[in-house]
Design brief:
The complex is a heterodimer. Chain A is mostly beta strands. Helix content of chain A is 0%, strand content 44%. Chain A has strands at residues 9-13, 18-23, 32-38, 45-50, 55-56, 61-64, 70-75, 84-91, 108-113. The chains are: A mainly beta, B mainly beta.
């Protein structure tokens, strides 16, 4: 799976958009970009994923560059409850009998400031 | 919404005790996983199951066993708990190992072995 690089920490003012970048310059054609977040003492929460096109759901938007070497997770109106560690993961389509291989890395610690 | 439920959020066990961690998912997912998460080490896969009665070792299976008698339930067993098994344990599930499928996590079980 492609390695990802994320900033260690970021701050965002409450009510503003939070833009979390992720570099994945070695991504290959069949690898998806996934975003999860983990609030302290809880399990990781799925946010969004995509392959080539930009994606949007009720939680966030995912912008993937045309060359797919980087992506940005956008939380349009950050709230205090969005304070968490955000993980960007890229992984290939697994075979039928392989398990996980979601390597979470260290992620970006986002702090939403009142 | 997918729901992955871990039976115990916080447990304290003595060294040498047998420990059962239970996990249930309500989305008829084929694949289920057990991870542990430790500071600085990220998520590490212990075991996974791609179907009922099927199991495969992950990256750190030593000291653990698993049971999957029913599709919705995946149990992690510590035969003889040791202090180095103090950790947060995360259960997860996925529909199948199809490209783009997402892994969903439970809330986590904090185990302290004294």
């Amino acid at each position: 799976d492609a390695k990802t690089t994320q900033p260690t920490s970021m701050d965002c003012a409450e009510g503003r958009a939070a833009n979390l970048p992720c570099n994945h310059s070695t991504i290959s054609g069949n690898e998806y970009v996934y975003w999860y977040r983990q609030i302290h003492s809880q399990g990781p929460q799925y946010i969004i994923h995509g392959l080539k096109n930009n994606e949007t759901n009720e939680m966030a938007s995912l912008i993937i560059t045309e060359d797919r070497k980087s992506s940005t997770l956008i939380l349009p109106h950050a709230t205090l409850r969005d304070t968490a560690v955000y993980y960007c993961i890229v992984r290939a389509s697994p075979t039928a009998v392989t398990g996980n291989q979601f390597y979470f890395g260290t992620g970006t610690s986002l702090t939403v400031i009142p | 919404d997918v729901k992955v439920t871990q039976s115990s959020r916080y447990l304290v066990k003595r060294t040498g005790e047998k420990v059962f961690l239970e996990c249930v998912q309500d989305m008829d997912h084929e694949n289920m996983f057990w991870y542990r998460q430790d500071p600085g080490l990220g998520l590490r896969l212990i075991y996974f199951s791609y179907d009922v009665k099927m199991k495969e070792k992950g990256d750190i299976p030593e000291g653990y066993s698993v049971s999957r008698e029913k599709k919705e339930r995946f149990s992690l067993i510590l035969e003889s708990a040791s202090t180095n098994q103090t950790s947060m344990y995360l259960c997860a599930s996925r529909e199948t190992a199809v490209s783009g499928n997402t892994i969903y996590f439970g809330e986590g079980s904090w185990l302290t072995v004294v």
